[in-house]
Amino acid sequence: MATFLPFTTRIELPFWKAVNEKKLHEWKLDESPKPILGQLSYSEITGKECSLLMTYKSFNTNEIPKQESISGFMHLYNTAESFKAAMTAESKRKILEDETAKIWDSITSHAWLKNPELLSKFFMITFVDLKKFKYFSITCVPGLYFPSEIQQEINKDDLYGADPKTLFSHMAETSSTLFLFCRKSAAILDVSHLESVNNPDDFAIVVADPSTVSYTAGWPVRNVLAAVAQLHSSWNHCHVISLRSTGSIGIKFMWTNNISSQEKSLNFVPKSAGWDQLYNVDLRKKFDPVLQVDNSVNLNNELMKWRQLPDIRLERYSKLKVWLVFIKWFNFLLQVLILGAGTIGCNVARGLIAWGVSHITFVDNSTVSYSNPVRQSLSEFEDAKNNRGKAETAAKALIRINPNTKAESHMLTVPMPGHTIDKSAEAQLEKDVQKLEQLVMEHDVVYLALDSREARWLPTVLATKHRKIAISVAIGFDTFVVIRHGIGSRSDSLSHEAIAESMPYSHLSCYFCSDVTAPGNSTADRTLDQQCTVTRAGMSPQASAAATELLAAILQYPDPLMCPASVDENTTMLGATPHQIRYFANRYQMILPIVKRFERCVACGDAIAKQYQQHGWKFVLDVMNSPSRLEQVTGLDALQESVNAIDIEFDEDEDTTDE
Amino acid sequence: MLTEQQFRDELRIFVEKMNENNINWKLQENGQTARESHLVELPDGEFVTQDSHIIYNSTYQTPTLWFNFHAKTGAPIDIEIVERDLLKIPKTESTASIRTRISQYEHPFLGVLYYNIHPCQTSQIMKELKLGEGTWLMSWLSVYGQQIGLRIPDIQNL
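Predict the joint structure of the above. Result:
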């Protein structure tokens, strides 16, 4: 039995892009069949198929060489329903019959002798959803079952005396894929001469064949045989040269020429086959603009991976998988809480989204004022004019920049030591403390980008309690400091060998550890110029950049919560993971102190943690009304007393000059 | 390096030579670029189309190689599979190798993301090769094309 290798439709991505554009700008809702070209290759050496390539040129009908294409139509439906209706067995049968009848007509009318391309036709039934970027299509290249039984004999060594090179040249010169080779004279003739040929053995019919299997002719040969058998009803065989650059073959095809009565009737159309599979592809990632952003941002960071740091774990900035000792692997999205949506908060957020961080929450209690937009990079003039909340403005700006960001905002005043409140405000205080604690619990990293010392107190207590990565960022006129607070509380921290030049994460000081007095209300009794922090414009971007990169490095450490403070650049693949970064702009000097935490710290000390654990918001209330409470709880007051009690005796009689 | 006109002339010669050797490159966009596509087999037995284009880069004044892989439905292939099974980049590949300079950019004519080998090292590499007239692109492709599995004719046939 002769077999014919069927077509496999291969669509390239740019083809779908071309369809997108044509439908949007040209076709719109028009469902009439669209002319289209499928490309063929006669030099394919891989695979076991005839490839029908749909490329971005498939609609530019004059840009593909004629001999390497077959023409057809695309039936593009506008709705899923009409597409499904076209895909029922009955509809498919009908359209195949109609298209087959057209080919058969060109055979019986002998029109194919002048225009052999009439034998090779195809059609596609397609539906595209341009909102969801989903593409459905099925292709059919009708192959006629006529004659109904064909045998083949392969003639691999002898191409009937033909030189393939000559045949290929002829194809290139005439753009013809079907012609005749005279076995006696080696002349090449146009296929229309076949009409006057009497003896099938005088000629070999040359067919340019996209088949990649050496012992099987390709699908186009099928229709050629149907045409030949119809043209010469007395013939029962013919010779074909299946022309391919991978090794042309000669095949003798044989059939019985008893024409059945059915075949004699005028309305006869042979049976046919040729459906390929239904293709269904989701290309949102390639065409949806919002996902394009995601793709491109990821791509940008992937470049870093390809070019500089093959082992960098980029997923940690969006997803952080952490081995929490004795518990299990957690796989969650990295969520960053930024307290303060001012100059530092905005700039840190900008840095984080460049790394691919997608979950950011802002907390701020004020609205955008006219002086803000020049320094607070997520706000603009209109926000100040309309008096919008800072946190809300920052969050909305992030979403405008990258629609894939999950940015949230909360307008909240962080309760502060020394800022007295009266009874009427206590209910709100309880709510605020709870809200703030809940926010800290829900996030993995907390940036303390607030504008006063005392504002950082409660966040420090909460971050310590819940074992979160907390980073304080503060700017002075021409200085900045970035401090990553020691993780968790000192007493229940995991024991960890302190290596020379590095200190375990749990041993690091917080923002307050170096202070022997409690933070108080720093804003009361100050003039306007003293209340706003005045800084050189470049301080905030520099500080925020350092704060972003510090987190980026920490997150590359195998278990970030165990990342020691170290100035050794081999600590992580992004380099060192310092504890404190202090910068002095007037002399462009940066130092990296590593400071041990203070057991009597008013913020991260155990005594404070215990008080908060036991009394919660009521402790906060106490501290707000009387910051000295912090000194009492931690025993700092006793420490201060003991300093005063030291009696240094000055011998007043002693002469200061030597004898 | 190569002016745009020199590139176009070389490209014509290149396409002719390739076609003589049954490697199906075609001139496109009025001779501005050439493209070739063929099937590649994946380890799981599936075949994908590899589609390669040679496009002139006026900033670097050299040709650049753009390519992509498509499943038969038109879906692009996962980057991991591209690296591992198609380009066969070993994990230990040195950072100086050409293949670390592969990244995705928007294709100048097609408007979709295609892989591209960055041309920053081309002039350096081409200086080391002996070039005759009409052999520029063939030599260039023998370096760059090999990285992505493109066939080069045997030397005798050139």
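Chain B touches chain A through 34 residues (CB under 8 Å).
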